[in-house]
Amino acid sequence: MKKIILLLFLFNASFLFAQKEISGTVTDNSGAALPGVNIVEKGTFNGVSTDSNGAYRIKIKEGAILIFSYVGFSNLERIADSAILNVVLSLDGGQVLQEVQIVGSRNTKRTVVNSAVPIDIISVKDVTTQSGKLEINELLQYVAPSFNANKQSGSDGADHVDPASLRGLGPDQTLVLINGKRRHQSSLINLFGTRGRGNTGTDLNAIPAASIKRIEILRDGAAAQYGSDAIAGVINIVLNDDVNELTGTVTYGAFNTNAKGDFPAGTANTDGNRLDQNGNGNSIGKNQSFDGGSVKVAANYGVAIGEKGGFANFTTEYINKNKTLRPGFDFRKGFGEAAIQGFNLFANMVIPISDKTEFYAFGGRNLRDTDAYAFTRGDGARVVESIYPGGYTPRITSNIIDNSMAAGFRTETAGGWKIDISNTFGKNLFHYYTKGTINASLEDASPTDFDAGGHSLSQNTTNFDISKNYDTVLSGLNLAFGAEFRTEKFNIFAGEEGSYATYDINRRPITDPQNQTIPSIPNPDYDAADPSSPMTLPRPGGSQGFPGYSPLNVVDRSRTNLSLYTDAELDITDAFLISGAVRFENYSDFGSTLNGKLAMRIKANKNINIRGSVSTGFRAPSLAQVYYNLRFTNFSSAGATEVLLSPNNSPVTKSFGIEKLNEEKAVNASLGFTANYGDFTATIDGYLINVKDRIVLTGYFDATPLGVGVDKAQFFVNGVDTKTTGLDVVLAWKKTINESKIGVTLVGNINDMKINKVKNGNLPAGAFFGERDKGFLLASAPNNKFGLNFNYNRKDFDAGLAFTRFSEVKLLDYQMDEDVADYGSFADQVKAATDTYGAKIVTDLTLGYKISKAAKITIGANNLLNVYPDQQDDWVEGGGYWDAVQMGFSGAYYYLRLGFNL
């Protein structure tokens, strides 16, 4: 041990002896102090921030370069060649074409502090170095007030892509941008018991955290500015532009398997009953204290191009996470989080062509192999004993590929007009493979894995944007307008025949049901006295766990969209800002829409701003919502049901009176204020969001009279109107005392969603959108979430402690599908079916130490106290002891990370 300490001392000695202290102040062009400016010794982790008076003090290596950065201002690099170094940051101090543009405003001179709408700026480097979260959704869940995401289990594709939302609205009602350009959505549509049921969304986890400089979250309706999907707000991901340094991390972590709860003897995935992952999903393996082991390796490197600010920045990331397995019932022995193995490659580039013109490009490729257990097949017609004695638990695996590429030119004319012409292409591919499964109608001749087909969504967007700032018009006027042309294409492609076909006793696909015989087994519940009781049970076709897409499911559909917009921001005085936007959109498949927005900001005094906005918005129905179709088996504790999800253009859909899908329409209003008193800042914003014609997935209708071979049918419909009111709160205090930096932040969201109207027409309300369906929709909008975060940094040591309180969530379980007579009344049935997940506080802890100038070790725990949901019920959607709620169901996660900076 003494030798190790001596080696560490010698390793650091050369740096320690060569250090000197630099101090100074940071101001803007007017001489006003800038608190919270980030100051970093280039090429190291060593950094500080300015205090409330704009002052700083830092110890650095002799001759080092300091980087000064502040949101809304140009970065500045200065050689630390004197003991006192005062600097002035300018909005116009850097290269003209690389000024910071904040989402929510097309004015490059606008900053977060003086914006008219609520914006969160999240430094990903800061968050990832003080957190053990592996994916972007997890990071945002704990740092953004109204962002919510859920890990799913037993939800097919949604086990692999976490549904996420802002302000309790749908995953597809938040627009995602990268470097200000529209990001393509996932081709996956959320089904079953997921949050965001019936919605598509953008897969944020396909973007490597190491490639991101910051994330801007606009918590305000912005469809008039950015188009469809921006009802709840906009998430803009700004990619890294660092040069001449190699940074990276290696992280290992695992989950505590000691689930908290009252589990009967023999419960799957408790001690003595842990599922053997090397078996058929029905055999017992060894006890484990930890599972879900994960390794994540990430690296980022940038090189300068030319001498006018050009760069090329590259990121690579590898993640390998094993399954977690938690207590489940006999019909769901594989309850837990999916396994993921993924590889990311991302790039961001700017090449100056002249002093006024530059070419830029960015994009990447994400590949993930995922693996999750489906519901257990214990006995009956779905089990072939010669292949799986005693039953089996099929696995749904998938290859998910996201490719994206954006390129364009930015220039500034002699008259001061900024012009941006770009093209962005993105495609998501979801390819399913079922493993550890069978096609029961093939009996003992069945393969045990199948190519089940899949789906893809591609999007190409061409943008023309132009803007100009007039400093001489009152206190400043910014005009912007532009056009966008977008094409989208949605495909479903078929799997191999055995994944979807039902075979006869001669092992030929059923094409003539009247003259072909399906293999069957004796009915163990046959009652000779009951004429309706069958003597035999037919063996079902298709791959168990996930039925493959058949040629009848194949889809190849596309559409185009043309949009025109204009917006303006006018500083009438230094204290009063007003802005407005108008956007026209025309879709080839459903028509046109016109939306507008008006916002204002008043500086009540030098410390307080009052702001507010009102806007209209819309969201076009996704191609997946219009054309997606599938036949699947829905499992509950009551048994299996064959279901047809019928596309919107199908005769089956029309026969039920379901109308053509149209856009969702919204009205947003917000009012809030910001306050800045020295070391303390606060933003409080209230909001009201009315959405008409929200697209939802119906419940199940009786489909037996149709004679299409299924029990139930369901559809996508413009089914409900909702009203959401809420409050976002961000309170922050930062203080530098001598060499110690202390930060305390409280982020919170209070939210209330109400379903104003269910538009079932003449259809039965319970089947159209019943109490259980309402429960899933409302659970996407938790009543509140609060996070209290403490951060401490002194020299080489830093620590973070976070408490996150998730509010109570209520869901209705499968008891709603039972006979009302079994409960006495409908009200009693609702009461019995209501599962209440009480409010819980999750504690995260992280401790970091720089072992050298270029290396840092961090240890920590997410959910340190191993808190679990308290509700336990075998009627839940996922088949485990808990539903998918915001706090998760995998317990404590412990990790160790090595960070390096060369």
From TrEMBL:
Chief place of localization: membrane
Keywords carried by this UniProt record: Cell outer membrane, Membrane, Signal, TonB box, Transmembrane, Transmembrane beta strand, Transport
Originating organism: Flavobacterium segetis
Subcellular localization: Cell outer membrane
Lineage of the species this protein comes from: Bacteria, Pseudomonadati, Bacteroidota, Flavobacteriia, Flavobacteriales
Classification via PANTHER family: PTHR47234, SECRETIN_TONB SHORT N-TERMINAL DOMAIN-CONTAINING PROTEIN
Family per record: Belongs to the TonB-dependent receptor family.
Pfam family, one: TonB_dep_Rec_b-barrel
Protein name as annotated: Iron complex outermembrane recepter protein
Signal peptide boundaries: 1-18
